[in-house]
From TrEMBL:
It comes from Sporolactobacillus laevolacticus DSM 442. It holds the Pfam family QueF. HAMAP family: QueF_type1 (MF_00818). It comes from the Bacteria. This is NADPH-dependent 7-cyano-7-deazaguanine reductase. The gene is queF. InterPro entries: GTP-CH-I_C/QueF (IPR043133), NADPH_dep_7-cyano-7-deazaG_red (IPR050084), QueF (IPR029500), QueF_type1 (IPR016856).
Length: 162
C-alpha cells in the first residue's frame, strides 16, 4: 500500500482532478505531521483566490496567505488548492470568506496556531484586507495569537502594489 493511500489522500497524484465550483470543505484532506514535537510554520500563498460578492455577484479577487503551526495533522496542499478553488462561485463578503477558511482549517487539523490574511483587490476604489488568527486554548499559542492580532496592523503596508 502506498504512503498516499495509507494516509487516506485521494487527490494528491490523481490525474482525473474534478474541479468543484461551489464551496465544499469536504475537499480538504490531511496527513500525519512527521515532526509533531517541533513547532514550525507552514505558509501557503494563494494569489488566485476568487469569490463572488453576495449582493452584486461581481467577482472578487485576492491573494490569500495561510500560515499555521501544525500539531498532529497537516493539510494536504492539492486538497487546499481545490478547496480554495471551490469559492469561485461562492457568494460571501471578504471577511466571511477569511473567517470561514480559518474555521474549516481549524476544524480539520486542530493546529497549534493558524492565521489567514486576505488581500483583496480594490473594487469601487477600496481594498479590504481581513486578517484572522487562532491560538490553541491553554497553550502559549493562545498568547501568540492575541499578540499578533493586537499588533497586526501597527505598520500598514503601502497600497501601491495592486
Amino acid at each position: 500500500m502506498t504512503e498516499r493511500k495509507k494516509e487516506g489522500l485521494t487527490l494528491l497524484g490523481n490525474k482525473g482532478t474534478n474541479y468543484i465550483f461551489d464551496y465544499d470543505p469536504e475537499l480538504l484532506e490531511t496527513f500525519q505531521n512527521a515532526h509533531p514535537n517541533r513547532d514550525y510554520f507552514v505558509k501557503f500563498n494563494f494569489p488566485e483566490f476568487t469569490s463572488l460578492c453576495p449582493i452584486t455577484h461581481q467577482p472578487d479577487f485576492a491573494t490569500l496567505h495561510i500560515s499555521y503551526v501544525p500539531a498532529e495533522r497537516m493539510v494536504e496542499s492539492k486538497s487546499l488548492k481545490l478547496y480554495l478553488f471551490s469559492y469561485r462561485n461562492h457568494g460571501d463578503f471578504h471577511e466571511d470568506c477569511v473567517n470561514k477558511i480559518a474555521d474549516d482549517l481549524i476544524r480539520l487539523m486542530d493546529p497549534k496556531y493558524l492565521e489567514v490574511w486576505g488581500k483583496f483587490l480594490p473594487r469601487g476604489g477600496i481594498s479590504i484586507d481581513p486578517y484572522v488568527n487562532y491560538g490553541k486554548k491553554g497553550t502559549r499559542w493562545e498568547e501568540v495569537a492575541f499578540d499578533r492580532l493586537s499588533k497586526h496592523d501597527l505598520y500598514p503596508e503601502k497600497i501601491d502594489n495592486r
